[in-house]
Amino acid sequence: MIFESHKKAFIEEMIELLGDLEQTLLELEERMNDKELIAKVFRALHTVKGSAGMFGYDQMSQFTHNIENVYDYIRNGDLLISHHIIDLTLQARDQLIIMLQLDYDVHDSLNAKAQEIVTAFGDLIKQFKGEDSAPKLQTVPMHEAPAPVTLEANAQLQTYLIHFRPPRDIFKNGTNPTALLDELSKLGSALIIPSVDEVPILEFLDAEDFFISWDILLQTNQGRDAIADIFIFVDDGHTIEIKEYHTPVAPLKDSDFNELQSIIEQKAPESCHNFEELLQMAFSELEPVVSVQDKIIPVNAIRKEMQDKQHGPDTVTSLRVSTEKLDELVNLVSELVTIQARLGQIASMSGDTTVVMISEEVERITWALRDSALNIRMLPIGTTFSKFKRLVRDLSHSLGKEVDLATLGAETELDKTVIEKLSDPLIHIIRNSIDHGIESPEERVKAGKPAAGTIHLSASQSGGTVLISIRDDGAGINKESVRRKAIVTGLINENQEVTDTELYALLFAPGFSTAKSVTNVSGRGVGMDVVKRAIESLRGSVSIESKEHIGTTVLLKLPLTLAIIDGLLVCIDSEKFVLPLSSVEECVELLQQDIERAHGRNIINIRGEIIPYINLRRRFSLNQSIPEIQQVVIAGIDGVRVGFLVDKVIGQHQTVLKTLGRAYKNLEGISGATILGDGSVALILDIAKLAEREVIEESI
Amino acid sequence: MSKVILTVDDSASVRQAVSFTLRENGYQVVEAVDGRDALSKMTGLTIDMVITDLNMPNIDGIELIRQIRKHPQHRFIPIIMLTTESQTEKKLAGKSAGATGWIVKPFTPEQLLQVVKKVLG
Prior knowledge:
The structure holds two protein chains of two kinds. By secondary structure, chain A is α+β, with helices and mostly antiparallel strands.
């Protein structure tokens, strides 16, 4: 039985530990002389080996053992750390993650890869030791289950004479000799006779030394090994002597032991010091025995009892809660927020001050509860950042470039779901930076830049939004080649004037890539549009700024949380809609004369700037009377200002997001719904999708 | 009075597994993450036994054993070290530093309890 119940904790710990190991290895690569880092790597490997074995991951343990060996040599100065070794160790580390995920199941292919790594590590040792025995990865479990001590297997009762002479300093290593004797008596029936011959006279007696020895007659069915096992911690070759002894009567009863004891105690002191002679004498005085019954100490019964106790409540100081439970909590809190808003409305209408007071108190508590529930889901974004160091290292190596990664604001907190979904887009962007942005060392030096490029990854929070920027000091985007490519792919006309912002926005079009050749890193043209879609699915936005020869910055704007958003509540007829407030730039009035001046086209002139707007009334086929003064909500979408025509802007609204369910999943332009204080439903607009569709329809 | 055992291991999962097994069997457990933590937690406490890993940051197991053996209050308490199978020399180093005994990793809850009973009596 292994420590199964703690396996989950083990896996989590391993993932953390292997993550740290990766970090340490990367640091080590920068500071190869740092002994502390080498010790840290060794320690991590050692822990992996030890713990993996404990929780049944034998192959993992065996595998790690081979790597740990090499680091033991490095630690002792026998072997020098090198890029090659660090590289191999990183591979091994990845392999360990795979092994961890596969649980006990091991594929042949995995075995091959693992064996390859093990062989490479074996070669390292061979190189300086000259040994030709490369270690083999064993698939045999490292530890066999301990052979259970069964009564059937060793049922034979045997009698032993044991002489136990503890070393003088036995107390100094914390051993309690009488505990060993107690343990010994549990093996069967024992006659224990102490000898105090060596105890010095009082003035020479050191109270911390030990002078007593024992002679023991033991009748047991457990065998000699079980006896030796008890003394394993104290035996240095002289401490314990065990020999088989044939008693005149066999087997002995408990009463016999008692009788022998009293005979010896009466006679021993003055007669003789040899235990065997004493025993012979005692046996001769023992009355003949007629009937005999074995007495077996039920060792197995004790064991079973211990096993039965295995499962019970654990005491914990911190909790690991599944994400589903958290989602459920956030969901319930959202419901509460909605119902509380309703209560607030009714309370204020009732005019009853007591009810208003209670309602306000409920509101205060509800918001506090909402904040703390959302806070539980928050994680520092640094957990994602640390992954990229490895990515940058591997990628820049394979492309023959030198790139450093500098991170800032790793402590910025974001919703767990957002963080998880952010990882892939960030990988895409960083890949792009390294592949397209950062130049080769020669080009960089020629351009007067340091040979090593730098990617700055930073995160910061601003209100309900988190800003993440990925800035490189590479070549920047070549506007001309973007333009040419856009013309070729038909995204713009040959003579069309486009601003830089619009030009960069084209990079997010599906299938757009300016890379001349397809490398295994990028250039397949699937990068940036996937990034854009992923970020938008998180209700965020992405934009690019670039200066040729100076570098490129990709800026991501993300909401702190996915469950509740700040919205702008608007109405058209009796229908209410919510626009995400983070995109809204301003609201302006649209008078009848403005419409006439535009000759039926949906454009509005704001301080000299012509902005197109979308007539939501028409889009949603709401055909009631149009008010005299309408309002246009101006929103920024990918750096382009687009207006949305509504009847009236009601105001800011804390919006608890509800999905529309499967039936309406593919509805374009609506990202969800929310329940208002009065119980009615307002649809949440997906403004980016609405704008996109409008453009498509107009071009048709 | 149930006996108090101090478990020292930088691996939380192993430490927890050991501590859990001990608690389930009626022992009181104090946990420490490394040698330094162990020494500070021992101060002023009555500890009946220590179970320690060897490879740890800050103060490692061997040094911890040495320090405990010099400690006026705790110098005679039993100390069990957790080692991995390959390290015979570690076992000897532990013994000469003053360890009472050892448990070889990987081990089972039963093996752990057996050793604890043997040492504590």
